[in-house]
Write a structure and sequence with these properties.
mainly alpha; 3-stranded mixed β-sheet; globular; disordered N terminus
Length: 277
């Protein structure tokens, strides 16, 4: 694939489209009606996870010279510079969401076109400037999160795709952004390097949404986590380590790493969360 990268409607980059029967707009509407009670997680440990993940990505970026930085990433059509630029702009977007939470909620993101243009501009920066840009954006997010009032964490904010979530879920989104795109950087960080706590949550989040979609898997078992999810009344039983399952569902590892075959094609990832708040 060449040319401009494809953006999904959440503002994150994905390498694959879902089946037509999983048309995103209608399913977002369905998920928005699945409002159930959801307690806020403890913010300090979740923020600590984000800061550690950001530190790993920044360390990887520090080891990229100009030639490697301009080399291809694992995402078609993107260099490693594009990946780092995307993470920087996403962190800026999450700061805007926290700012929105502090003032009562609402949207806090630029539109998809503006975001794509900002990524292209940052990706063209010299290596040192791009690393500084990335570090500054991640630092601003961490500082804003540390200064947000306790009450603001439960305020609803609006993602670029239009679905709402509490401000605390921005921390989850940022962690997902960091871990996923660290793999996309293609510098030796693999799905097997993902923290267990991240894999555990992200599988819960993804499989919860796939259950709402009626995705064609009956049961999914993460053998290393000791966890099992029932997704649909019909379809194959899928058993594998958690990071392999999440890697496949997120488009980062191929289906050939899993049995049985053939498997249904997962919809574009990430999906809106369940509950829809």
């Amino acid at each position: 694939m060449t040319g401009a990268p494809e953006w999904d409607t959440s503002g994150e980059r994905s390498g694959r489209r879902g089946p037509e029967q999983c048309a995103r707009a209608s399913h977002v509407e369905q998920l928005e009606h699945l409002v159930t009670s959801a307690s806020s997680p403890a913010v300090p440990p979740l923020l600590a996870d984000v800061v550690r993940s950001a530190g790993r990505l920044r360390a990887a970026a520090a080891g990229l010279d100009g030639e490697r930085l301009r080399g291809p990433s694992a995402l078609p059509g993107w260099t490693r510079a594009h990946v780092l630029a995307h993470v920087a702009r996403a962190a800026d977007a999450y700061v805007r969401l926290l700012d929105a939470a502090a003032t009562g909620g609402g949207a806090g993101r630029a539109d998809a076109t503006a975001l794509a243009e900002a990524v292209e501009k940052a990706a063209a920066l010299p290596a040192g400037e791009l690393r500084a840009d990335l570090g500054g954006s991640l630092d601003r997010f961490a500082v804003r999160a540390r200064t947000l009032s306790e009450a603001a964490w439960d305020v609803l904010v609006t993602a670029l795709a239009g679905w709402r979530h509490p401000a605390w879920f921005t921390l989850r989104r940022c962690l997902r952004e960091l871990e996923t795109h660290h793999v996309d950087l293609d510098v030796g960080y693999a799905t097997s390097d993902w923290p267990v706590s991240y894999v555990d949550w992200a599988l819960d989040d993804t499989l919860g949404a796939l259950t709402a979609y009626g995705f064609g898997l009956s049961t999914v078992a993460a053998v290393d986590l000791g966890r099992t999810w029932t997704v649909s009344p019909e379809g194959p039983l899928l058993t594998a380590p958690g990071h392999v399952l999440l890697g496949w569902l997120s488009g980062r590892t191929p289906a050939r790493d899993l049995t049985p075959a053939p498997l249904p094609e997962p919809p574009r990832w990430p999906l809106p969360p369940v509950p829809g708040w």
